[in-house]
Amino acid sequence: MSSCHYTTIKKLPLNFFFAFRSPKVFSRVSPSSAFFSTDIVGEKPILVRDFIHSALYDPNHGYFSKRSGAVGMLESSIKFNKLEGRRAYLRHLDKIYKQNDISWFTPVELFKPWYAHGIAEAIMRTANLSVPLKIYEIGGGSGSCAKNIMDYIMLNAPARVYNNMTYISVEISSALAKKQLETVGEVRSHLSKFRVECRDAADRSGWGDVDLQPCWVIMLEVLDNLPHDLIYSENQVSPWMEVWLQRQKDSLNISELYKPLQDPLIKRCIEIVDLEREHSTHGARAISAARSMWSKFFPKPRRSWMPTGCLRLLEVLHGSLPKMSLIASDFSFLPDVRVPGARAPLVSTKGAGVPT
Question: What residues form the membrane-spanning segments (predicted)?
Protein backbone atom coordinates (compact mmCIF):
# COMPACT_ATOMS: atom_id res chain seq x y z
CA MET A 1 0.00 0.00 0.00
CA SER A 2 3.06 2.26 0.15
CA SER A 3 2.56 3.30 -3.45
CA CYS A 4 -1.03 4.42 -2.86
CA HIS A 5 -1.92 8.07 -3.25
CA TYR A 6 -4.41 9.42 -0.75
CA THR A 7 -6.39 12.61 -1.10
CA THR A 8 -8.92 13.99 1.33
CA ILE A 9 -11.57 16.48 0.35
CA LYS A 10 -15.06 17.68 1.11
CA LYS A 11 -16.27 17.46 4.68
CA LEU A 12 -19.65 15.84 5.07
CA PRO A 13 -21.94 17.22 7.82
CA LEU A 14 -22.62 15.30 10.98
CA ASN A 15 -26.18 14.38 10.10
CA PHE A 16 -25.41 13.31 6.55
CA PHE A 17 -27.03 9.91 6.19
CA PHE A 18 -27.60 8.01 2.98
CA ALA A 19 -30.99 6.41 3.51
CA PHE A 20 -33.08 4.26 1.24
CA ARG A 21 -35.97 5.90 -0.50
CA SER A 22 -37.46 3.65 -3.18
CA PRO A 23 -37.08 3.81 -6.11
CA LYS A 24 -33.55 5.04 -5.70
CA VAL A 25 -30.81 4.88 -3.21
CA PHE A 26 -29.94 8.16 -1.44
CA SER A 27 -31.61 10.89 0.56
CA ARG A 28 -30.86 13.11 3.49
CA VAL A 29 -32.75 12.44 6.70
CA SER A 30 -33.14 14.85 9.60
CA PRO A 31 -31.00 14.27 12.73
CA SER A 32 -34.08 13.38 14.77
CA SER A 33 -34.76 10.32 12.63
CA ALA A 34 -31.26 9.29 11.60
CA PHE A 35 -28.10 8.06 13.25
CA PHE A 36 -24.78 9.79 12.83
CA SER A 37 -22.61 8.90 9.86
CA THR A 38 -19.74 8.33 12.26
CA ASP A 39 -21.67 5.40 13.70
CA ILE A 40 -21.05 3.68 10.37
CA VAL A 41 -17.51 4.81 9.63
CA GLY A 42 -15.24 3.40 12.32
CA GLU A 43 -11.52 3.79 12.83
CA LYS A 44 -10.71 2.50 9.34
CA PRO A 45 -11.94 3.95 6.01
CA ILE A 46 -14.69 2.06 4.18
CA LEU A 47 -15.86 1.95 0.57
CA VAL A 48 -18.96 3.91 -0.36
CA ARG A 49 -20.91 0.69 -1.06
CA ASP A 50 -20.16 -0.60 2.45
CA PHE A 51 -21.28 2.70 3.94
CA ILE A 52 -24.58 2.53 2.05
CA HIS A 53 -25.09 -1.14 2.90
CA SER A 54 -24.61 -0.45 6.60
CA ALA A 55 -26.91 2.58 6.48
CA LEU A 56 -29.63 0.42 4.96
CA TYR A 57 -29.31 -2.94 6.64
CA ASP A 58 -27.20 -2.86 9.82
CA PRO A 59 -29.21 -4.71 12.50
CA ASN A 60 -28.69 -1.93 15.04
CA HIS A 61 -29.05 1.27 13.03
CA GLY A 62 -30.01 0.33 9.47
CA TYR A 63 -32.92 2.10 7.81
CA PHE A 64 -34.81 -1.11 7.03
CA SER A 65 -33.94 -2.71 10.36
CA LYS A 66 -35.44 0.15 12.35
CA ARG A 67 -38.38 1.04 10.12
CA SER A 68 -41.00 -1.63 9.49
CA GLY A 69 -43.00 1.01 7.60
CA ALA A 70 -40.22 1.73 5.12
CA VAL A 71 -42.25 -0.01 2.42
CA GLY A 72 -45.88 1.03 2.17
CA MET A 73 -48.86 -1.29 2.03
CA LEU A 74 -52.32 -0.23 0.88
CA GLU A 75 -55.30 -1.43 2.88
CA SER A 76 -57.25 -2.04 -0.32
CA SER A 77 -56.66 -2.01 -4.06
CA ILE A 78 -57.07 1.19 -6.05
CA LYS A 79 -60.29 1.10 -8.06
CA PHE A 80 -58.91 2.26 -11.39
CA ASN A 81 -62.28 1.96 -13.13
CA LYS A 82 -63.47 4.90 -11.04
CA LEU A 83 -60.56 7.17 -12.01
CA GLU A 84 -61.03 9.35 -15.08
CA GLY A 85 -57.57 9.32 -16.61
CA ARG A 86 -54.02 10.11 -15.56
CA ARG A 87 -54.75 13.36 -13.73
CA ALA A 88 -57.35 11.71 -11.55
CA TYR A 89 -54.90 8.92 -10.78
CA LEU A 90 -52.16 11.40 -9.77
CA ARG A 91 -54.60 13.28 -7.54
CA HIS A 92 -55.61 10.01 -5.90
CA LEU A 93 -51.96 9.06 -5.45
CA ASP A 94 -51.23 12.42 -3.84
CA LYS A 95 -54.10 11.84 -1.43
CA ILE A 96 -52.78 8.40 -0.51
CA TYR A 97 -49.33 9.74 0.33
CA LYS A 98 -50.72 12.55 2.44
CA GLN A 99 -52.83 10.06 4.41
CA ASN A 100 -49.96 7.64 5.06
CA ASP A 101 -46.67 8.19 6.83
CA ILE A 102 -44.96 5.88 4.37
CA SER A 103 -41.71 6.40 2.47
CA TRP A 104 -42.89 4.87 -0.79
CA PHE A 105 -45.46 2.61 -2.39
CA THR A 106 -44.02 0.24 -4.95
CA PRO A 107 -45.77 -0.44 -8.29
CA VAL A 108 -46.69 -3.96 -7.19
CA GLU A 109 -48.54 -2.33 -4.27
CA LEU A 110 -50.17 0.48 -6.23
CA PHE A 111 -51.36 -1.88 -8.96
CA LYS A 112 -52.25 -4.86 -6.82
CA PRO A 113 -53.35 -7.48 -7.50
CA TRP A 114 -52.96 -6.99 -11.27
CA TYR A 115 -49.22 -6.34 -11.32
CA ALA A 116 -48.45 -9.61 -9.54
CA HIS A 117 -51.15 -11.45 -11.49
CA GLY A 118 -49.38 -10.46 -14.71
CA ILE A 119 -46.13 -11.90 -13.40
CA ALA A 120 -47.87 -15.10 -12.36
CA GLU A 121 -49.48 -15.46 -15.79
CA ALA A 122 -46.11 -14.98 -17.50
CA ILE A 123 -44.61 -17.72 -15.32
CA MET A 124 -47.48 -20.11 -15.98
CA ARG A 125 -47.25 -19.58 -19.75
CA THR A 126 -43.51 -20.22 -19.97
CA ALA A 127 -42.62 -22.57 -17.11
CA ASN A 128 -42.40 -26.34 -17.44
CA LEU A 129 -45.31 -27.18 -15.17
CA SER A 130 -44.53 -30.90 -15.29
CA VAL A 131 -41.89 -30.26 -12.61
CA PRO A 132 -42.56 -28.59 -9.25
CA LEU A 133 -42.66 -24.81 -9.57
CA LYS A 134 -40.00 -23.02 -7.51
CA ILE A 135 -40.02 -19.24 -7.17
CA TYR A 136 -37.52 -17.00 -5.38
CA GLU A 137 -38.35 -13.40 -4.65
CA ILE A 138 -35.58 -11.07 -3.54
CA GLY A 139 -36.56 -8.01 -1.55
CA GLY A 140 -40.23 -8.88 -1.25
CA GLY A 141 -41.26 -5.75 0.66
CA SER A 142 -44.61 -6.14 2.38
CA GLY A 143 -45.30 -9.55 0.82
CA SER A 144 -48.03 -8.35 -1.54
CA CYS A 145 -46.32 -9.72 -4.63
CA ALA A 146 -45.86 -13.17 -3.09
CA LYS A 147 -49.44 -13.38 -1.86
CA ASN A 148 -50.98 -12.16 -5.10
CA ILE A 149 -48.86 -14.52 -7.22
CA MET A 150 -49.83 -17.47 -5.04
CA ASP A 151 -53.47 -16.38 -5.12
CA TYR A 152 -53.41 -16.36 -8.91
CA ILE A 153 -51.73 -19.75 -9.21
CA MET A 154 -54.13 -21.25 -6.68
CA LEU A 155 -57.14 -20.02 -8.67
CA ASN A 156 -55.89 -20.51 -12.25
CA ALA A 157 -53.31 -23.31 -12.39
CA PRO A 158 -53.96 -27.03 -12.11
CA ALA A 159 -54.26 -28.06 -8.45
CA ARG A 160 -51.04 -30.09 -8.59
CA VAL A 161 -49.05 -26.99 -9.63
CA TYR A 162 -50.24 -25.02 -6.62
CA ASN A 163 -49.98 -27.93 -4.20
CA ASN A 164 -46.39 -28.75 -5.20
CA MET A 165 -45.05 -25.21 -5.60
CA THR A 166 -42.43 -23.55 -3.39
CA TYR A 167 -42.15 -19.80 -2.93
CA ILE A 168 -39.02 -18.57 -1.13
CA SER A 169 -38.57 -14.95 -0.12
CA VAL A 170 -34.97 -13.88 0.44
CA GLU A 171 -35.24 -10.81 2.66
CA ILE A 172 -32.40 -9.04 4.47
CA SER A 173 -34.69 -7.06 6.79
CA SER A 174 -36.10 -9.00 9.73
CA ALA A 175 -38.92 -6.45 10.09
CA LEU A 176 -40.02 -6.94 6.47
CA ALA A 177 -39.56 -10.72 6.71
CA LYS A 178 -42.08 -10.75 9.56
CA LYS A 179 -44.46 -8.56 7.58
CA GLN A 180 -44.26 -10.89 4.57
CA LEU A 181 -45.23 -13.91 6.67
CA GLU A 182 -48.23 -11.99 7.99
CA THR A 183 -49.33 -10.92 4.50
CA VAL A 184 -48.98 -14.34 2.87
CA GLY A 185 -50.53 -15.97 5.94
CA GLU A 186 -53.83 -14.24 5.22
CA VAL A 187 -54.47 -17.31 3.04
CA ARG A 188 -53.69 -20.22 5.33
CA SER A 189 -53.00 -22.74 2.56
CA HIS A 190 -50.17 -20.53 1.25
CA LEU A 191 -48.06 -20.93 4.39
CA SER A 192 -47.10 -24.56 3.73
CA LYS A 193 -45.62 -23.48 0.39
CA PHE A 194 -44.02 -20.21 1.48
CA ARG A 195 -40.98 -19.43 3.58
CA VAL A 196 -38.77 -16.43 4.28
CA GLU A 197 -34.99 -16.72 4.47
CA CYS A 198 -33.74 -13.66 6.33
CA ARG A 199 -30.33 -13.11 4.74
CA ASP A 200 -28.42 -11.07 2.19
CA ALA A 201 -29.11 -12.43 -1.29
CA ALA A 202 -25.77 -11.05 -2.49
CA ASP A 203 -23.87 -13.27 -0.03
CA ARG A 204 -22.90 -16.40 -1.93
CA SER A 205 -22.57 -18.51 1.22
CA GLY A 206 -26.29 -18.15 1.94
CA TRP A 207 -27.24 -20.06 -1.21
CA GLY A 208 -25.38 -23.26 -0.31
CA ASP A 209 -24.67 -25.76 -3.09
CA VAL A 210 -25.40 -24.89 -6.70
CA ASP A 211 -29.05 -25.61 -7.54
CA LEU A 212 -29.26 -27.13 -11.02
CA GLN A 213 -33.07 -27.29 -11.04
CA PRO A 214 -35.15 -24.78 -13.03
CA CYS A 215 -36.51 -21.93 -10.95
CA TRP A 216 -37.80 -18.37 -11.22
CA VAL A 217 -36.24 -15.33 -9.58
CA ILE A 218 -38.34 -12.18 -9.11
CA MET A 219 -36.73 -8.84 -8.26
CA LEU A 220 -38.99 -5.78 -8.26
CA GLU A 221 -37.34 -2.40 -7.59
CA VAL A 222 -34.23 -4.18 -6.32
CA LEU A 223 -31.37 -3.78 -8.78
CA ASP A 224 -31.46 0.02 -8.96
CA ASN A 225 -31.66 0.28 -5.18
CA LEU A 226 -28.54 -1.72 -4.38
CA PRO A 227 -25.40 -0.02 -3.00
CA HIS A 228 -23.17 1.78 -5.47
CA ASP A 229 -19.49 2.61 -5.42
CA LEU A 230 -18.09 5.97 -6.39
CA ILE A 231 -14.93 6.62 -8.41
CA TYR A 232 -13.17 9.93 -8.90
CA SER A 233 -10.69 11.51 -11.29
CA GLU A 234 -8.90 14.83 -10.76
CA ASN A 235 -9.39 15.88 -14.37
CA GLN A 236 -10.37 14.65 -17.81
CA VAL A 237 -7.27 12.49 -18.29
CA SER A 238 -6.21 11.47 -14.78
CA PRO A 239 -6.78 7.83 -13.83
CA TRP A 240 -9.88 6.83 -11.93
CA MET A 241 -9.56 6.32 -8.17
CA GLU A 242 -11.73 4.58 -5.61
CA VAL A 243 -13.66 6.77 -3.17
CA TRP A 244 -13.49 5.73 0.47
CA LEU A 245 -15.08 7.39 3.48
CA GLN A 246 -13.13 8.10 6.64
CA ARG A 247 -13.83 9.67 9.99
CA GLN A 248 -11.90 12.87 10.59
CA LYS A 249 -9.67 12.99 13.65
CA ASP A 250 -11.15 14.88 16.60
CA SER A 251 -14.29 15.56 14.58
CA LEU A 252 -17.77 14.17 14.02
CA ASN A 253 -17.44 14.75 10.27
CA ILE A 254 -16.50 12.25 7.61
CA SER A 255 -14.54 12.99 4.45
CA GLU A 256 -13.69 11.34 1.16
CA LEU A 257 -10.42 9.53 0.65
CA TYR A 258 -9.13 8.62 -2.81
CA LYS A 259 -7.10 5.49 -3.50
CA PRO A 260 -5.81 3.89 -6.72
CA LEU A 261 -8.16 1.29 -8.17
CA GLN A 262 -7.62 -2.01 -6.40
CA ASP A 263 -11.05 -3.40 -5.50
CA PRO A 264 -11.81 -6.35 -7.86
CA LEU A 265 -15.56 -5.68 -7.93
CA ILE A 266 -15.10 -2.03 -8.87
CA LYS A 267 -12.58 -3.03 -11.55
CA ARG A 268 -15.00 -5.56 -13.07
CA CYS A 269 -17.78 -3.00 -13.06
CA ILE A 270 -15.60 -0.38 -14.78
CA GLU A 271 -14.64 -2.93 -17.42
CA ILE A 272 -18.29 -3.77 -18.11
CA VAL A 273 -19.35 -0.12 -18.23
CA ASP A 274 -16.30 0.57 -20.44
CA LEU A 275 -15.65 4.10 -19.26
CA GLU A 276 -12.64 4.62 -21.48
CA ARG A 277 -14.01 3.07 -24.66
CA GLU A 278 -13.15 6.15 -26.69
CA HIS A 279 -9.46 5.28 -26.35
CA SER A 280 -9.95 2.13 -28.38
CA THR A 281 -11.66 3.87 -31.27
CA HIS A 282 -10.13 5.12 -34.50
CA GLY A 283 -8.23 8.36 -33.99
CA ALA A 284 -7.82 7.72 -30.28
CA ARG A 285 -4.35 9.25 -30.14
CA ALA A 286 -5.50 12.58 -31.53
CA ILE A 287 -8.50 12.63 -29.21
CA SER A 288 -6.34 11.72 -26.22
CA ALA A 289 -3.85 14.47 -27.02
CA ALA A 290 -6.63 17.04 -27.33
CA ARG A 291 -8.18 15.95 -24.06
CA SER A 292 -4.81 16.11 -22.32
CA MET A 293 -4.18 19.66 -23.53
CA TRP A 294 -7.70 20.75 -22.65
CA SER A 295 -7.41 19.31 -19.15
CA LYS A 296 -4.30 21.40 -18.45
CA PHE A 297 -6.10 24.66 -19.17
CA PHE A 298 -9.59 23.68 -18.03
CA PRO A 299 -9.26 20.89 -15.45
CA LYS A 300 -12.59 19.38 -14.50
CA PRO A 301 -12.91 16.67 -11.84
CA ARG A 302 -14.93 13.61 -12.82
CA ARG A 303 -17.16 11.49 -10.61
CA SER A 304 -18.84 8.30 -11.71
CA TRP A 305 -21.12 5.94 -9.81
CA MET A 306 -20.60 2.21 -10.31
CA PRO A 307 -23.53 -0.22 -9.74
CA THR A 308 -21.32 -2.71 -7.91
CA GLY A 309 -24.15 -3.96 -5.70
CA CYS A 310 -26.15 -4.87 -8.79
CA LEU A 311 -23.17 -6.62 -10.36
CA ARG A 312 -22.40 -8.62 -7.24
CA LEU A 313 -25.99 -9.84 -6.86
CA LEU A 314 -26.25 -10.89 -10.52
CA GLU A 315 -22.94 -12.73 -10.32
CA VAL A 316 -24.07 -14.58 -7.18
CA LEU A 317 -27.41 -15.54 -8.72
CA HIS A 318 -25.77 -16.75 -11.93
CA GLY A 319 -23.38 -18.94 -9.97
CA SER A 320 -25.96 -20.26 -7.50
CA LEU A 321 -28.98 -20.75 -9.78
CA PRO A 322 -27.58 -21.36 -13.29
CA LYS A 323 -30.98 -22.47 -14.63
CA MET A 324 -32.98 -19.58 -13.26
CA SER A 325 -35.43 -17.50 -15.26
CA LEU A 326 -35.19 -13.89 -14.11
CA ILE A 327 -38.00 -11.34 -13.88
CA ALA A 328 -36.70 -7.91 -12.90
CA SER A 329 -38.51 -4.60 -12.94
CA ASP A 330 -37.15 -1.19 -12.00
CA PHE A 331 -37.68 2.51 -12.38
CA SER A 332 -35.82 4.00 -15.33
CA PHE A 333 -35.81 7.62 -14.17
CA LEU A 334 -37.28 10.22 -11.87
CA PRO A 335 -38.00 13.62 -13.42
CA ASP A 336 -36.04 16.66 -12.24
CA VAL A 337 -33.95 14.72 -9.71
CA ARG A 338 -30.17 14.66 -9.90
CA VAL A 339 -27.07 13.62 -7.93
CA PRO A 340 -23.66 14.79 -9.21
CA GLY A 341 -21.74 12.17 -11.16
CA ALA A 342 -22.34 9.88 -14.09
CA ARG A 343 -24.86 7.05 -13.51
CA ALA A 344 -25.70 8.57 -10.13
CA PRO A 345 -28.47 7.03 -8.02
CA LEU A 346 -31.51 9.27 -7.81
CA VAL A 347 -32.72 11.00 -4.69
CA SER A 348 -36.25 10.54 -3.48
CA THR A 349 -37.54 12.53 -0.55
CA LYS A 350 -40.95 13.11 0.97
CA GLY A 351 -42.12 16.54 2.01
CA ALA A 352 -45.61 17.44 3.17
CA GLY A 353 -46.65 13.89 2.43
CA VAL A 354 -45.62 14.13 -1.20
CA PRO A 355 -42.73 12.07 -2.68
CA THR A 356 -40.39 13.93 -5.04
Answer: none
